[in-house]
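Entry type: protein chain
Record version: 2
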Amino acid sequence: MQPQTAPTTIAPEPAMSFVQMLEQVRYHGAYPTRERAEEVVSTVLAALGRRVTGEERVELAARLPREAAEILAAQIPGTDSMTGWAFVRDLATRTGGTLATTRWDVGSVLGVVARLAGPDLLDRILAQLPTGYAILFGRAELTQAA
């Protein structure tokens, strides 16, 4: 009789490598170089890391390539509530970019993040964030009429 051992939990492999993620962002954002795409990914993921908390944060990090997960996880989540538009404004202020360029950057990165997260996890992430984030992830903002 074989002794039973506890099953080991192995973190799932991300659906793509960091280089593949950068190439996706580069393509969708029409960035001229991989370096520019990496700069945008780092900035947007750091900002997202200041917003997403709890199990959703842990699950999202597990679905991102290791380098992207480290950027997200290195941030201390903020305690203030920030709408999607305030998120873009705050990021534009931090980076010195225009609102239009920052909105483009955010959408280019979060569209790829949405695909890596998958619909169920993305639903849970959006449920914990204030209004205005769905569109940043490439989704319609669905609200009920009062």
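Comment: The chain has seven helices and no strands.
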